[in-house]
TrEMBL record:
GO terms for molecular function: UTP:glucose-1-phosphate uridylyltransferase activity. Residues 1-31 are annotated as: Disordered. Residues 21-31 have a biased composition (Basic and acidic residues). This is UTP--glucose-1-phosphate uridylyltransferase. Belongs to the UDPGP type 1 family. The keyword Signal does not apply. It is an enzyme of class 2 (transferase). It comes from Fopius arisanus. Its EC number is 2.7.7.9.
Amino acid sequence: MLTVDDKKSRGHSRSPSDTQAFRERTKRDAENELAAELQKLENTAPPHLRQEFHDEFAGFTKLFQRFLQDSGPSVVWEQIQKLPEDAIRDYDSLKEPTNEEIRDMLNKLVVVKLNGGLGTSMGCHGPKSSIVVRNDLTFLDLTVQQIEHLNKAYGASVPLVLMNSFNTDADTQRIIRKYKGFDVIIKTFNQSCHPRINKESLLPVARNCDVNEELEAWYPPGHGDFYESLQRCGLLDEFIKDGRQYCFISNIDNLGATVDHKILKLLLNPTTEPHEFVMEVTDKTRADVKGGTLIQYDNKLRLLEIAQVPKEHVDEFKSVKKFKFFNTNNLWVKFSAIERILKEKTLDLEIIVNPKVSDTGIHVIQLETAVGAAMKSFERSIGIHVSRSRFLPVKKTSDLMLVKSNLYVLRNGSLLMSPQRMFPGTPLIKLGDNHFAKVEEFLRRFSTIPDLCELDHLTVSGDVTFGRDVSLRGTVIIIANHGDRIDLPSGTILENKIVSGNLRILDH
């Protein structure tokens, strides 16, 4: 006869708490192991750098502890609230300031560019800001031109601040020497340098603190590191003492992120209590479905990123109808509010777990944070609905094609939509990764960038080259299948055409 040991049966029912106890124990073990490994790493640092690494590791340890505590999406989908009517202001409702107001306001502003990224995804070496965009000018050249024009036009003194990473700092310091004759004060500071951790062991892959020797073992922990790094380097105190009230933060590769006087007036000459944090948002298109959006949650306005969305709601998150706007990462933040939040230790940023595979094949994770995620930590945060012209990032060569084309005219370092473009919005361009992903190869395939003023959509796939003065209009699809090659002759005009097969015109 089968008998059941009742004690064992009852004991088995406690398995959930056993599992919880196991998890807690493994978390403690992971924290203890990490602390021991970080101490070993710190001991390899030169004596004059040891305190610096100690501080870096303290920040990393906080991130790591929060990573261990996170048990899934940080948002309960059903608890997302409807956005209040005044949560997002329309840009057109903002008032234009006078020239006198502008001069006064500019002297209370600091422009910050996030300059920690490399151009490796587009096959370039060094800081992304050193990629040539237009007229032999780089992202950084154009940014300096913009600020200098502001200062000269209004008799102001807006400083430019670059947040570099250990990857970009040395090259950037060499580059900015050429701007000494410009009417722009340039200051730099570095974001943190954190150790990558092995996905399996949750321990650092670095063996010593010589970052240059083991570049692959270290990473900058995302632009959410801005707030604490700005304070740590002393610039936050310096700007507050200097009477600066707000900073305008944007990515160095967003050519649409210029200082806007109407937004500045809203912040510095408010009709109600001043906003501590403003996020520029723009209309979401099908190309932006993964971009962060604004939601009301726990009665606070906050940024919702795709990584925080439960898997079963990802399609809903990507909906252009339900979530109409997305974050441009153009942010306006009050310095005194940053100081208060850091003092009160109320800065709350979600952890972004970024998995990578190193060149040696090791699966590692990077723990990062985003600068816009701080929105919920500030008082009276709002979004401002701006036009698409404020969002011109260059992430791929397809973006580079747009900003190099006649769609835009260059004026005082700023790109403005050409008056020849008869309708708003930019064309959707898709260039094949195999032949166009790297800047060098992309440039080799164009004798000149085609006329895009009347283009809606362009798809190019395969071995395709463009002659001089090509014009593309409407929807154009060019596909060279494997083994085929298409050379578009100079002067070609393609309007609502599909081109496939082989096309070569040879000189004779």
